[in-house]
Structure formats: structure tokens, C-alpha cells
Amino acid sequence: MQYKSPFGPIPRHWTVARLRDLTSKIGSGATPRGGEKAYLQKRQNYALIRSQSVHDRYFDTSSVSFITDDQAHSLRNAEVKDGDILLNITGDGVTFARSTIVPNRVLPACVNQHVAIVRPVPTLADAQYLMSFLASPEVKSYIEGFNAGGSRRAITKGHIESFEMPLPPLAEQEAIGSILSSLDDKIELNRRMNETLETMAQAIFRDWFVDFGPTRRKLEGATDPVAIMGGLVQDAERAQALADLLPAVLGDDGVPEGWHTKGLDEIADFLNGIALQKYPAADGEDSLPVIKIAELRSGITPKSGRASPSVPQKYIIHDRDFLFSWSGSLLAKFWTDGVGALNQHLFKVSSAVYPNWFFAHWIYYHMPEFQRIAASKATTMGHIQRSHLSAAQIICPHPATIEKMGEIIQPIVDRTIHNDLESRTLTSTRDLILPKLMSGEIRLDEAIEAAA
After folding, report:
1. 248 vs 192: CA distance, rounded Å
2. What does the alpha-carbon distance between residue 367 and residue 162 come to, in Å, rounded to a whole number?
3. Which of 246, 257, 266, 374 is surrounded by the most beta carbons within 10 Å?
4. Rounded CA separation 299/187 (Å)
5. What is the DSSP string of 24-90?
6. How far apart are CA 99 and CA 134, in angstroms?
7. pLDDT at 62
8. Which burial class, exposed, middle or buried, applies to 421 when counting CB atoms under 10 A from its CB (0-12, 13-18, 19+)?
């Protein structure tokens, strides 16, 4: 059968190769005896990589597990090496066939039975190029065609070995891989920067609104405004302006004098999404992508459904709206993946009185308790109820005080949103040029200019 590239015709000087001819290893691992109960609480040496860590072109280090050296040695054929490509070989429609290169910082590590190691021969195939082939949207349906798992997708080692791909000369592979990885690096830099910014914003929020740090430091005799603000505002004049606004006394309820306690649903409106199957998109109609829990969890542009633009306007979501899933995977985030329609099981949170950083950080603060409540439900999909929002206690200073404190926190939140929006643009650029690069449609210098 003649090879049909997922990217269209290929240049004459390129060839077609099967993965078995470009790799020194293709294979998956196993779960150590005892399963999850046998995992370590903290890392000693080895990590165990599972499918939830493997995303397309990105590795989630927060979801790796840890195993003992003895467990790792029992999985020695599943040990990952620097530069290995990881491919999810089982899973649902979200996790199946995701692929990335293992980051060096995770090693030493082994994979479990749901993840395959694809180890290219360096003189034959560039790892970034090969991974870009596996992770590209155009190749997903190709991989799906090998699915041997019915409703739960699965592919075998033999399937992977038989994958055919367009193969430029090695120098071109390396150049293509370098262009695409440079965009990945910019996206990863934004992600890490946002982790730092979010940690900073939450530390400030907790000190000011949960621990009442400035008031307590005043009670302990602090007079230097920078010290009163916990060193979180280094400009003395700005720190003084904030310190002057904050009470020096705690009331009988343990809250700074003049501050009030409210329920979370008193400071913000929680608009529940709707069943969008009632608004089906007509053929040829400019439809809206549906925002579901999966999109909020994975942080991807909605692709799993379309809704009619006749959806009531209040359920139309835009960039910078704050979303909160109250069912299933309880998560909350500022949305940055474009216009879409809000599906049920998601709240759009807004307030006519309080700034978005304020109610957002109170939701973040209460999220562990909400997740605990949802996990305790005797159903397959845990959830919280409106009463839990009312019971979630919020400490509210005077609005003028919140406004002044927002001059410190709001720019941090705005920067994280800006970084996410920039990453979306970078992702779109990468996804636009990837198939053109891998078909030889555009020249490398054109791609370099697009990626700059």
C-alpha cells in the first residue's frame, strides 16, 4: 500500500520510514507489585511516570509517583533515558496517544504499563522531530486507526513499530525540531513564570487576608511599614500607605477590627452553565466551542463539541472570565482559550462589587475543602452544593482597602493572564507551521521568521 502522509505530499529528497527502523527501543513498563499503595510519599531516587504526566509536548512533573530502588530494578526494562520520547498507549479521548520528551530533571525514572518508551537512534532520527510527528494533531487520527482497545483506546508495541512517517535528511530533522522546540521553550518559560507569580500572589493574599500578618505585626510593636507589610512591599512610601489602612487591633472574633465575615456567595455571583445539547449547532453555522470540565482541566482550546450562537449571551465565555468546576474535577482558573459556551457543571464567577483577584483567591483558598467534600460523596462524580459556598467564610476589609491592596495583587494576576494568552498565540503559531514544516511546504527560514 502506498504511504499517505498525514501532512500531504512530501519533497522528493525525503523518504518514508517505519519507527522500528529509527529506534533502538520501543516498549512499555509495569506497575510495581502492590500498586499505588506501594508508592513512596517522597522521592528517594526513582520516579514512576504514568500517563497523566504525559501531555503533548509537555511533561507534568507534579503528577509523577515515587518508587524504591528495588521496585525500579524490577522494572529495569522500563527505565527511561535522557532524550527518550514518551507515548501514552492507553487511555480515554483526552490522555490517549499524548507524546512528549522526558525532561532530564525527572530522571532516574521508569514508566508504567500505560506509557511506551520510544528511543530514537541519534544518527537516524532527531528526537524533537520524531516527537513532533507523534504529538501533531494531524497524526492523532492515524494513531487512532491502530486502536485495539475498543471504547478505551489502546495500541501495542507492534502498532508503534509499524508507524510510518515522512523523514527528511537528519540535518533538516534537527532544524525542524529546533524551531518547534524553541516555541515549546517559550511556552514552558511562561508556565514556570506563572507558577512563580501565582505562588507570590497567594503568599501575599494569605498573609494579608488569612493570617492577618500586618495587624499582628503592628500588635507585636512593628513600626517600619515595610516590616508591617511582611516585606512583601519593598517601597517604603507604598508600604506606609497600605499599613495606614490596616487595623492595629483584632476584634473579639479574631478578625481585624472593622473587617467583616461573609459567605463566598455573598461576594460573587456563581452562574451555572447550561445543558448545551439543547442548543445544537446547525450545519454550516458559525458555532461556538463548548467549554466542559475536560477543557478546564487540560487547559486546551475546546474541541469536544459545538453549540449554536443562539446560546443566551450570559453563558458566552471570553478570555479573562473566571471559571470554577463544581462537579467532577474541582478546579478554578481564569479562562484564556477564547470565546466559548459554558457547559453545565461549571460556574462563571463574577462580581459587581469586588475585584476578580479577590474572589478568585478566596476560591483558591477554599478549594482543598471543596475537593474534600466532593471526594466524600458516595457517587462516581463528586460535587459541592450552593450551601457549601455559603458556608465558606470570607474576610472582607472596607472596599477602599481592598482597592488599595489590589494595586499590589492585581498586576500579578494580570501578568499571569497575559502570559497564558501569549502562550496560546505561540501554540497556535506552532500548530500552524508544524504540518507545513513536516510536509516541506514552507522553507526553514520562513518558519524561523514565524517563530521569532
Report:
1. 37
2. 45
3. 246
4. 13
5. EEEEE--PPTTGGGGSBSS-SSEEEE-GGGEETTEE-GGG-EEE-HHHHHHTGGGB--TT-EEEE-E
6. 6
7. 86
8. middle
* C-alpha neighbours within 13 Å on the C-beta side of residue 315: 23
Q: Please give the grid coordinates belonging to residue 11.
A: 519533497
Q: Given this model, what pLDDT does residue 301 score?
A: 54
First to last CA, the chain: 40
- At residue 451, the pLDDT reads 64
Which pLDDT value is given to residue 1? 42
pLDDT for the residue numbered 284: 66
Rg over CA atoms, the chain: 25
pLDDT at position 3 is: 67
Residues 6+ apart with CB under 8 A from 255: 212, 261, 395
Cell 475536560 found at: 294
Measured in degrees and rounded to the nearest 5, phi and psi for residue 208 equal -80, -40
Backbone angles phi, psi at 217, to 5 degrees: -70, -35
Which amino acid is located at 410 in the chain?
A: Q
124-165 residue pLDDT tens: 999 999 999 999 988 988 888 887 656 678 899 999 999 999
Tens-place pLDDT, residues 30-64: 888 877 778 888 899 999 999 999 999 999 998 89
Torsion of CA 389, 392, 395, 396, to 10 degrees: 10
Gap between the Cα atoms of 213 and 197, Å rounded? 20
CA distance 309 to 280: 9
| pLDDT (0 to 100) of residue 423 | 94
Q: Tally DSSP H helices, then E strands, for the chain.
A: 14, 23
Strands 46-49 and 109-111: parallel
- Where the chain has pLDDT below 50, the residues are 1
Dist. CA 421–CA 432, nearest whole Å = 17
In the Cβ-directed half-sphere of 385, how many Cα atoms lie within 13 Å? 3
CB-CB neighbours of 254 under 10 Å: 9
Cβ contact 292:305 at 8 Å: yes
**d(C-alpha 169, C-alpha 173), whole Å:** 6
Q: Measure the CA–CA gap between 344 and 327, rounded to whole angstroms.
A: 9
Record the cell numbers describing residue 58, joined without a space. 509537555
The three cell numbers of residue 56 are: 503533548
The length of the chain, given as a count of residues: 452
Pair 389, 264: CB distance under 8 Å: yes
Residues whose CB is less than 8 angstroms from the CB of residue 27 and which lie 6 or more positions away in sequence, other chains included: 77, 78, 116, 117, 157
Strand order in the sheet with 65-67: 65-67, 46-49, 109-111
The 3-state DSSP class for residue 316 equals strand
Q: To which residue does cell 445539547 refer? A: 277
